[in-house]
Fold this protein.
Amino acid sequence: MKKESIGGQKRKAKMAFGSIQQRPLLPSSIPMDRMGIALCSNSSPHLGPGSYDCEKDVPAPCDLQPDQSAIKTFKQNQIPFGIGTPRFLDYCKSEDIPGPGTYSNEMEQKRQYMIEGSFGGPITIVPPVTIKCVEENSDRCYLCRSSPVGDYYCHRKEVLCRQCYKNQWETENVLSKRKLMTFIKVRDCSFMHDHQGTPAAIQLVNAKDLKKLQRREAYLSKYYS
């Protein structure tokens, strides 16, 4: 705050405390503190909880908010439910697709993983397909004498491709179902190993991806054989 001098004398500032507004002072104004409450109660003894007219001075709760009981109006959509696609589509009703009634829902199925472990030891999932690690797969089908492609079935030295296994399961011309139940599903290791004609194997799939594959096949084996 600057002060100007006239004739060697300092001139007083017009503002005190940085403001020229009127200050509320007693007795015209009562301060908003404990002393003001005491002065107000002494000067106006008629103020009290029972001195107010609630019907005139205090509004009702319903007057503080809009009426919510009024009937609301909505803008009608041009399309019902806002969707113009057909509700009932024409699906294929071919006889090649079996209906829900063709499945045997009374057949009890075992929806569990095959696991193995010991007391206190780790529990591992038994893979549904046995991996056969060989340098070169020389297995031939016992019936059609062709090299199996993908997964196939094996029992000791007898080998069946998937097509022959399926045909024998339906017809039982050469092998009975009791004999076919002794076969296990096997797979060549060519998807994960590269032997290059030697007993040594080059890993093509890392251990993490191989473990995921085993878990996925174990889950799907509960529904597909």
Notes: The CA atoms of residues 61 and 173 lie 90 Å apart.
